[in-house]
Amino acid sequence: MIPYGKQNITEEDIQAVAKALTGDFLTQGPTILAFEKAFADYIGCKYAVAVSNGTAALHLSALALEVGHGDKVITTPITFAASANCIRYCGGEVVFADIEPDTYLLDVNKVKQVLQSAPKGTYKGIIPVDFAGRAVNLEAFRELADEYGLWIIEDACHAPGGSFTDSKGQKQHCGNSNYADLAIFSFHPVKHIATGEGGMITTNDEKLYKKLLELRTHGITRDTTIFENSVEFAVGQPVNENDPYPGWYMEMQTLGYNYRFTDFQAALGISQLSRADQGLDRRRAIAKRYQQSFSGKPYIKGQSDVIEGHAYHLYVIEIEDRVGLYNYLREHKIFAQIHYIPCHLMPYYRALGWKENDMPLAENYYKHCISLPMYPTLTDEEQSFVIDKIATYFTK
Ligand SMILES: *Cc1c(COP(=O)(O)O)cnc(C)c1O
Predict the structure, then answer these.
(1) Roughly what angle, to the nearest 10 degrees, separates helices 54-64 and 82-89?
(2) Confidence check: pLDDT of 139 > 90
(3) Which residues are known to be catalytic?
(4) Where are the active-site residues found (predicted)?
């Protein structure tokens, strides 16, 4: 059986987790901080906050940016539902804008049209997605966001290690938060770095970082410099003028959650991260081979050419008879997948007023897209088998 994506757990990974399990901490131990630091270094940002999954990362990001009731936020319909749902968790309103037909990414010009059609201040933020691993040009989004006073959350779940080149010729890694306010990642087994469940928020903004730490753990702080209640209250008996807060004391100052990551997952994360570049190279080699095999085949429309900086979480092609190929591949135990059913046409979002033809390019893309097997341990033989089966399907 050949799936579309798969984790790669090595003996090293197993040893790392075993070691963490025999340590003093199962959760909230020092390995989490070490993983956060290593991840921030890898991505090239100042701060990273590990959380229980990518969806929690999105939810906490929306909370940290104070998304509230009725706040309007723009995102793409071609993404996993969580990119949009995080706004709904906060009572906000999701506004979809269409994709670019050749990159499948949220179209900055479509976003601009949405913004221009309402008075300034109507919209609060944008959530672009590095779909399939192709980096969004966040410089263009930042310019627009600044014009309208919006924040940006980059959903970089597909793109750790991916990058785009900005107008100054600088390589900008996905999630480095040079243009976005916050970026989020997932460590679900199909993603580049697998920790079972897991997620990360990255930022360069210290205030947001501190807020995220608090929100991750019930809104509780132990920072004595910001306590609101008096020392006397905290101690529970009369105190002298300069008495400190007692050791047990902490305050819940805002409504937070338990979205914590665990120490043994962090150990797995660190071990996985050490092989991230290797995995990325392999993904790019697989993409190149698909590209070469499909070039000149009129029945296949690729996601443009092999692109520098593409992290290849997915290798997507567009074809006419999608269901035919999908079923044919399954008969041969090749489990290709479809990414994504347009989010605005999920029954939940239809019930909020979205309907067919609202996003014609995304809807057309959905009719033709199929994601082929793409993961570092896919062997050359397996890939040849996939390529052969596709060729056979179209010549039979
Ligand atoms: C996987 C994914 C998420 C959610 O991550 P989980 O860890 O599964 O909660 C969000 N956005 C995108 C684009 C994803 O691919």
Answers:
(1) 40
(2) yes
(3) 191
(4) 191
